[in-house]
Amino acid sequence: MRLLPLLSLACALPGLAQNPDFTVLDELAQRALRESGTPGAVITVIHHGQVVYEKAFGVTDVETQGRVTPETLFRIGSTTKMFTAAAVLTLVEEGRVDLDKRISTYVQSLPPKIGALTLRQLLSHTAGLGDRGSGHGRHDDSALGDAIRALPPEIVELDPGAVYSYSSLGYWIAGLVLESVTGQPFADAVAERVFRPLGMTRTTFRPLAAMTYPFAQQHEGSAKQAPRVIRPFADDSSTWPGGSLFSSAHELSRFVLAFLQKGKLDGKQALAAGVVSAMSQPHAAIPGSTDHYTYGLVASNDRGVFTLSHGGARVGFGSFIVMAPEQRSGIIVVTNRSGSTLAPVVQKAMELVLPLGPEESQPPAPTTIPEETLKSYTGTYAGGGWRITITRDAGRLVLIFQGKQYPAKPAPGGHFTTEGPLSDFVFVPAPDDSIRYLHVELRTLRKIE
């Protein structure tokens, strides 16, 4: 799901009002900010290739009370991945890299198991990598290469190419390929290949550059806890390619506008059409879902409308971008509270500008599951530093995580739910139909016993 805001555009499409009333977004946004403990946000809506709503809410900093504007810079978390993917794909367009060659072709001194991976695997989250996160670390350009070359071989947890498992680490490695091939620091290479052609003059990975413009401070908060500034400011340059871009809703709209027009912006080809096409094609099925990962985006069928989207959640910030290419429409939201994306506003904005069909009714959850099937699910699954054991008890599954047991209930679509921290999971079969994986919280764990 996604987000919107500015003027109103008359449109006569099935299921849409001729003159959408965007003032309803104002009210929803204000309520969502209060209920989520989010100090500030910007919402932008694009329809038929034009910005039809762009509005800022709240404050950049609860201490100074500076007002948010559409030009305020926010850190956008994993929404960054679409920009890293776009930059890497410009090299493909130029014939300087091959998506299916080992990346050791382009980057020297990599651990052998890392060097054997391909860009196609890295950009589609099928490299089999575990995930790592670090809010704080070094700030120099050499940190990226140093971190990747120091990775242990066991970080490749699954057979490359076998199954989707979300990993920001894969984007860090793809960023190093970009750096090595261009001979530029990662941040400079993306700026030259993506930001400057699109006129995104303030968008940057560099905190010392971002803070020379009006920017939002990072906050944590909730409905029950007043938002507060998080100190110190989180940064680790080795993770920039996966989730650390600073941008504004206003400048992000330039990327969305270009993407919706096959790379054209202001009458010029700002982004190669081949890059847009590659980012629009499904490349990896996401387990337990009809969605697919492309390169840097998630391809979905949202009530009959094809959409491409990505969200971002990092220390102190949240973001979401969704695009509907056929309708040349998009919604952008940026916020300054950890993980906040103002989902109700996104949903309403989509209803205002997209010809969404009726909500699909979910099939009922199975009341019973054959004992033989339950038996095939049992075992221990590991990956990403997690170890999960699935057992049976009186005809039902029990998930054991961090020493605690959580009874699991069958849910539609082959899913199971629990009341614990891992509230939803699904089993993933191998090509021979044996159960080999457990998919939970975007990541896929291998069955080890």
From TrEMBL:
Q: Where are the transmembrane segments?
A: none
Residues annotated as signal peptide: 1-17
Domain of life, per the record? Bacteria
Q: Which InterPro entries match?
A: AmpC-like, Beta-lactam-related, Beta-lactam/transpept-like, Beta-lactam_class-A_AS
SUPFAM superfamilies found in the cross-reference section: beta-lactamase/transpeptidase-like
- Give this protein's Gene Ontology molecular function annotations: hydrolase activity
Enumerate the UniProt keywords alphabetically: Hydrolase, Signal
Residue span(s) of domain Beta-lactamase-related: 26-340
UniProt xrefs under PANTHER family: BETA-LACTAMASE-RELATED DOMAIN-CONTAINING PROTEIN, D-ALANYL-D-ALANINE-CARBOXYPEPTIDASE/ENDOPEPTIDASE AMPH
- Report the protein name in the record: Serine hydrolase
Q: Which organism is it from?
A: Paludibaculum fermentans
